[in-house]
Amino acid sequence: MIRPLFTVMIALFFSAILTSACAEEVVVVKTEAYGFDPAEITIKPGTRVRWVNTEKRQYHSVYFEQLGDEPGDYFFPGESRERVFNEPGSFEYICEPHVDTHNMRGVVHVVE
Ligand SMILES: [Cu+2]
Questions:
Q1: Contact present, 60 and 97 (Cβ < 8 Å)
Q2: DSSP designation for 63
Q3: For 24-110, which CATH superfamily applies?
Q4: Ligand 1 centroid to 27 CA: how many Å?
Q5: Could you tell me the distance, in angstroms and rounded to a whole number, from the CA of residue 34 to the centre of ligand 1?
């Protein structure tokens, strides 16, 4: 009877270590149907945002003009782009190929 309990305690111990080692938070935004989902997010400084292209065929971009991005960085189905936000503020971005046709925009609010 003692052995199963011991096994559970060991498992809990290691899962606690793993959880604390992976403390950096990742927020996922999907690109779907010519939109960002969710289009508006609020995060804490230090958070990593990952945009995942979940389309079947369509490429997109995540273009932060105010952060000095170069245009034309398209990513395809199954690919992703990431950015870590360390400074507070509101950061708007667009998908350049689809902002005019589908108003494809998003915003990241970084709040302490
Ligand atoms: Cu797009």
A1: yes
A2: B
A3: Cupredoxins -  blue copper proteins (2.60.40.420)
A4: 19
A5: 5
